[in-house]
Hints:
The termini are far apart. It contains three helices and no strands. It is elongated and about 65 Å long. It has a domain at about 20-45. The chain has helices at about 1-5, 15-35, 40-45. By secondary structure, the protein is mostly helical.
Amino acid sequence: MFKQFTENISGHQVYLLSSLGIFLVFFIVVTVILLRLGKNHVDHMSELPLSDNEIDPSKNVVQ
């Protein structure tokens, strides 16, 4: 099947196949990275918007 695609490639089809290849490689890399993330890291990142360890903006007002 892939042999037919590679034999009949004309000028602009190279760009189509290369963009598909780049997309697939990127998708696979992101999937592998997400699957390898530790549970502690995911929990830490999910709590960041809600944590109280932030600096109070009212104390940093310059007059």
